[in-house]
């Protein structure tokens, strides 16, 4: 098998193939990857409408076990359990939160209501807050970098570009396309849309500034080390380049400071500011499977969007099942034919 792209998608697909004892090679052209900048956060709750993320429980289970396996294989630490404190924006949101718990809504298993003041002294939460314990982050950059070294040492990695017109190179029986936004134009030939969603994230050096949980007031601030936090993210549809915008720094700091009583995060504390392009599908779910009758060897694995860390391991597993067994049914939520624009040619 040939995997093109060595971001999170290519990496997790490669580990899945390795687990199954299938021979593979990974190619990448070294172009900027969303995975190079991802904060790595996972959270089973979608806050806007206060619902569980699609199949959250199963994704969490697969993710935990797959990243643990990678930790053992590479001798590194990737998985960090960090609870998340959701600051309520107003009384109506607080009431919705309580209602979800009272009525035993499917999201209720993931959310807790915090007693007044049950949070770090630096946190401002005038309308109260709730907690998600099954949240945290995965060190995506460490996983991707160490995996690349591992494949390279095993002569399974090459710096080489690929596109659909190259076809299935000699010696391979399938190509798994994990090129993120790099696959945009090839997938558009089949009526499949992968739109670049530009995002930025800051790394800020502070000491004992906010306790040991992620604070979320739409913008989030996440502790990643004793004196380092990440603040993110932004979402823009009008940028086609992984380019940092100067104005974003102030925007993110101001928003994060909106949830603080303590000393505000300041520009001089910013030690990193990075941008990337998330590969987003129209319904925000991955696009997995064969997309072309004429090219049955071509398998798409794309559209990981904003939640690659959580949904990635199970999605990689489905991708590999698709490659290995032509009769295996790709789950309908991620099949290319769920889009009316899809043309299988
Ligand atoms: C600012 C920001 C913050 C984020 N934070 C989070 C977060 O906290 N949690 C979360 O779950 N997700 C987060 N994400 C989203 C996450 O990054 C993506 O879901 C995930 O990384 C997508 O992985 P991918 O492998 O599909 O794409 P990418 O990481 O973009 O990888 C694509 C790969 O394809 C290669 N490539 C491209 N074109 C070619 C070609 N022609 N030939 C060969 N190789 C090619 C590239 O070099 C790269 O290796 C964030 C994204 C951004 C931008």
Task: State the main characteristics.
345 residues; alpha/beta; FAD/NAD(P)-binding domain; D-Amino Acid Oxidase, Chain A, domain 2; 2 domains; eight-stranded mixed beta sheet; six-stranded mixed beta sheet; 19 strands; globular; binds flavin-adenine dinucleotide
Structure description:
- By secondary structure, this protein is of the alpha/beta class.
- It has 2 domains: 2-75 and 139-193 and 282-338, FAD/NAD(P)-binding domain; 84-132 and 195-280, D-Amino Acid Oxidase, subunit A, domain 2 (D-Amino Acid Oxidase, Chain A, domain 2), CATH 3.30.9.
- It is built from 7 helices and 19 strands.
- Helix 1 links the parallel strand 1 (2-4) and strand 2.
- The model has no long low-confidence stretch (mean pLDDT 96).
- The structure holds flavin-adenine dinucleotide.
- Flavin-adenine dinucleotide binds at residues 4-10, 27-31, 33-35, 37-41, 161-163, 178-180, 182, 199-201, 232-233, 276, 278-279, 304-310.
């Amino acid at each position: 098998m040939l995997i093109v792209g060595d971001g999170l998608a290519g990496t997790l697909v490669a580990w899945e193939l390795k687990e199954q004892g299938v021979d593979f090679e990974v190619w990448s052209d070294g172009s900027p990857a969303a995975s190079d900048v991802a904060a790595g956060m996972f959270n089973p709750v979608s806050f806007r409408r206060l619902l569980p993320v699609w199949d959250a429980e199963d994704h969490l289970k697969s993710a935990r076990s797959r990243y643990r396996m990678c930790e053992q294989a590479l001798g590194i630490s990737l998985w960090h359990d960090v609870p998340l404190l959701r600051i309520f924006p107003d009384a109506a949101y607080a009431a919705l939160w309580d209602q979800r718990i009272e009525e035993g809504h499917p999201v209720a298993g993931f959310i807790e209501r915090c007693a007044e003041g049950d949070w770090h002294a630096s946190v401002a939460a005038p309308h109260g807050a709730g907690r998600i314990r099954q949240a945290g982050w995965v060190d995506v950059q460490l996983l991707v970098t160490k995996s690349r070294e591992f494949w390279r040492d095993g002569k399974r990695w090459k710096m080489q570009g690929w596109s659909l017109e190259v076809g299935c190179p000699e010696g391979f029986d399938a190509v798994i396309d994990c090129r993120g936004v790099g696959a945009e134009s090839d997938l558009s030939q089949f009526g499949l849309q992968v739109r670049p969603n530009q995002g930025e994230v800051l790394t800020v050096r502070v000491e004992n500034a906010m306790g040991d949980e992620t604070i979320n007031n739409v913008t989030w601030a996440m502790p990643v080390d004793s004196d380092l936090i990440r603040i993110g993210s932004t979402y823009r549809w009008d940028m086609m380049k992984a380019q940092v915008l100067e104005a974003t720094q102030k925007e993110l700091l101001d928003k994060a400071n909106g949830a603080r009583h303590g000393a505000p995060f300041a520009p001089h504390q910013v030690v990193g500011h990075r941008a990337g392009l998330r590969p987003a599908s129209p319904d925000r779910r991955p696009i997995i499977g064969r997309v072309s009758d004429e090219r049955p060897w071509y398998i798409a694995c794309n559209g990981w969007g904003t939640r690659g860390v959580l949904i990635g391991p199970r999605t990689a597993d489905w991708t590999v099942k698709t490659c290995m067994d032509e009769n295996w049914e790709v789950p309908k939520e991620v099949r290319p034919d769920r889009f009316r624009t899809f043309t299988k040619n």
